[in-house]
Amino acid sequence: MPRSEAVLNKKEGAKPSRREQRRAERRRTSFLWNAIVLGTLAVAALLVVLYIVANVRPGALPNEIEVPDEGRGEVPVGTDLIFQNYPPSSGTHFDQPAPWGRASEPLEEGFYLNNLARGGVVILYECADDCPALEAQLDELLQKAPKDSQFNTVKILIGRYGRPLPAPLVALAWGHQLNLTAYDEATLLTWYRRFVNAGPANGP
After folding, report:
1. pLDDT by residue for the chain (204 residues), tens digit each?
2. Among the CATH numbers 3.10.450, 1.10.3210, 3.40.50, 3.40.30, which is that of 64-195?
3. Collapsing DSSP states into helix, strand and coil, what is residue 172?
4. Is the pTM value of this prediction over 0.85?
5. Which of the four, 69, 135, 151, 168, has the lowest number of CB atoms within 10 Å?
């Protein structure tokens, strides 16, 4: 083999110098850190987008009624209350709310208006007799509804009403009403997302 060719082969097979190795290592380290930073930024951006999407309030629903505000004062439990609209969605109310969930007794306006003022929603229903199927659906709704972001509570109050209703199911929020001819889980969950923590005096 000619000497020049042997020298060329030797150079081709020579190991990189320490300086070249350090440069290559720095390039690999820099690439790794850039990938970590970009990945972290991408995850953070995705979380921000998901948070925004999860907290965007839905727009007005079909057949939603905006009811004139009747005030928002508080009075002791047992005080006689009179309203312009029945069922009322605003007005003077008791200084105590009803417990969240489905009530076993018909709801009183004075109590449930306090729940609405705290940023909850109320679902009133009426049945000719017992309606275990509807009540089972309403109980399932309470399980599916997400807890609110401020108080970690499902702020839904469900119960019968002591007066005739304009529809078999009536969903209320402060100053808003939605009449439903039949149970509609998707609509009720949207109603909840639209108005949770949107009352004049948010609270747990």
Report:
1. 555 554 444 445 556 677 777 777 877 787 777 778 777 776 655 544 334 334 445 677 788 999 999 999 999 999 999 999 999 999 999 999 999 999 999 999 999 999 999 999 999 999 888 899 999 999 999 999 999 999 999 999 999 999 999 999 999 999 999 999 999 999 999 999 999 999 999 899
2. 3.40.30
3. strand
4. no
5. 69
